[in-house]
Design brief:
mainly alpha; 2 domains; flat
């Protein structure tokens, strides 16, 4: 005589396998999007789909849809990610440079702080919209948030 749990375990495994195969078929039917071109188009602040329409409607405001291909862009959820990455990149560029400048030239600390604050603001203002575009391009390529 078989153990009573064996039958329910077999049914569970069969149903799990069927669900897994159905999920794999569903994912395989979706066309994959290339990540690298989407990131580069986003970095250029262009539509990740067509690469020619503008993505931004100002400095950081994202358009609701592409003016050229009508790709909906309002799905994006970049939030604070671009700001964190911008600070990370700027800090990694400026921290070693600040150390080298201080060790070699020994400028007045106030002069060093003011000059590097201005350089940091310039780099951050340059990088922030580009990093945000790259985030949106990544979200589009990975079909995140309804893209």
């Amino acid at each position: 005589m078989r153990h009573p749990a064996t039958r329910s375990t077999c049914h569970f495994l069969i149903l799990t396998s069927i669900n897994y195969l159905w999920f794999m078929k569903l994912n395989a039917s979706r066309q994959d999007r290339l990540v690298k071109p989407a990131l580069l188009r986003g970095w250029k602040r262009k539509c990740p789909n067509c690469g020619s329409g503008p993505m931004m409607d100002g400095y950081l405001a994202v358009r609701d849809e592409c003016a050229v291909c009508s790709q909906e862009l309002y799905h994006q959820r970049a939030d604070d990610g671009p700001a964190y990455i911008t600070i990370l990149i700027s800090g990694h560029i400026l921290a070693p440079l600040m150390l080298v400048i201080f060790e070699w030239y020994r400028p007045d600390p106030l002069l060093l702080a003011v000059s590097f604050i201005l350089i940091f603001i310039t780099i951050a203002l340059f990088l922030l919209p580009r990093v945000k575009g790259a985030f949106i391009g990544l979200q589009w390529a990975k079909r995140m948030h309804g893209f």
